[in-house]
Fold each of these.
Amino acid sequence: MTESQPTAIVFDGVSKSFGSKQVLQEVSFSVMQGETVCLLGRSGTGKSVTLKLLIGLLRPDIGKVLIGQDNISSLEGDDLSRLRRKMGFLFQSAALFDSATLEENLALPLRRLTDKSKSEIEHAVLRALAEVGLAADRYKMPGELSGGMKKRAGLARALVLEPEILLVDEPSSGLDRITASEIDDLLLEQKAKRRTTIVIVTHDVHGARRVGDRFAVLDKARLVAFDTLQCLENHESKTVRTLVGGQ
């Protein structure tokens, strides 16, 4: 990644607390368009809070969160909805509606957020399901799917609006190594085909090393490192070296 590339995301001096607990303190970093950044850190270090700030589910106490040129922290109503349409979110649990088929789960955001016709929606849903290998399962209910299939279905729903930015929370959670690698492959394909900007929260160092361009390491509410794998493997901090698998 080069500094000449357009910037997709900027965290500018962001702090966030819940009561007396400081979760993020003066965190600053930038993500370039088409880059994949993996957020690493021990549990409770603010990784998932960072994702929620990115999509506007939370607002910083101090600082700004920029998506392109827009400060998402200051947007409301239609302006916030418009910006969120540029982003897809893959939840840790996949977050599918149990009472709807896969096809209906994917069609819902298209019906709510676009003016596509019925045939255009059907085409977009089938395309997204095909991209994750679930086209033949379009009429299945979430309860009929394995854990890996649910994760792929959640990814398809996150991609159905063709987002510029994809936010991913623990993509390998609850999956065996082979299935987790399949999810990693899908993320790599998405990046290669559409130059999607991807931010991933993960404890899976193996997967992060496969898909990440740069790595943000959070510890005790602060960003303690943000760089490429090669640089972080030789970082002065033992915590950083351990989290990226360099030690």
Amino acid sequence: MPNTKSKPPLTYATSGVDIDAGDRAVELIKSHLRRTHGPRVLGKHGAFAGMFRLDYNEKLFQRNYKDPVLVACTDGVGTKVKLAIQLGVHDTIGQDCVAMNVNDMIVQGAEPLFFLDYVGLHKVVPEDMEQIVKGVADGCAIAGCALLGGETAEMPDVYAKDDYDLAGFAVGVVELRRVIEGQERVEPGDVILGLASSGVHSNGYSLVRAVVKQAKLKLEKVYDDYADDPMHGGRTLGEALLEPTRIYVKPIVSLLRGYKRKRPISGMAHITGGGLPGNLNRALPEDVDAKIDRKSWDVPPLFRFLQSAGNVGEDEMFRVFNMGIGYALIVRPHFADAVADKLRKSGQTVYVLGKAVRGKGRVRLG
């Protein structure tokens, strides 16, 4: 038997996990969860699992969904979280996490119902945890879904000091006959519309951070190079890079609901890692290409600033970043103007990017 007489007794706290801090963090985030809850959410905070009543207001639900299909997705925010940690700004990264999930979900035509988050970290700092969850709740409020709960895992042996990671999981619903499958419906002649992004969103931050390091850029400095950017001009580089990912749920869901019988939207794409070439192609049949005119929109100056500072090639920029287009719709030609008008009235900046043409399932940037 080992000699333990001279050694202090081990506790969870001495091994690096503070249960009391975790409990305090739970208390601080309760109010953020509650403000996303509607009458469909059942049960009390702190249960082992969250409950969401699918058939709340049965008459209304049955009118909307005769043959409901559940849609689920999961995603994180990548290395953008490293910038949040470096700058000590934790109240926006949660919106990014929600956006990365719900923006994927609506591509299938689904309405987000609820969301759960996972935070893995070195050490629980209750005040920081509250800010992270506040951002998640803000994102859920924008998306119109409930934050049912989540998990906080304090693992000092896995995460370096001050580090954390954030991921999420979302569930939504869509009527079976309204599911959008671009690979089945997109045809030559369809018009491709693009919705403006709010900036870099949540992809390509390993390259962004490499540019910042190599060019010795200062995150706390305001650069004139992107002064003409309506979204980021006058802001520090750090503020511009932490701008949360735009959530497109309400304008897209509202648009889809506006067409009760007709189906003018043949396909959609959330423009994430891989840019337009690596995401819009996922909505194309094998015999149709998307022909995109790069001159159809002005690339925001922030992207050009990063490109110049890092000496990044044009093709690489379009392969990594959204370049100002965060979401794309492929629309039947007869409906294109009406759809664009509806989206503009909902507050979106809309560009006509190009058309679907006969091809091999690729995106052509010209």
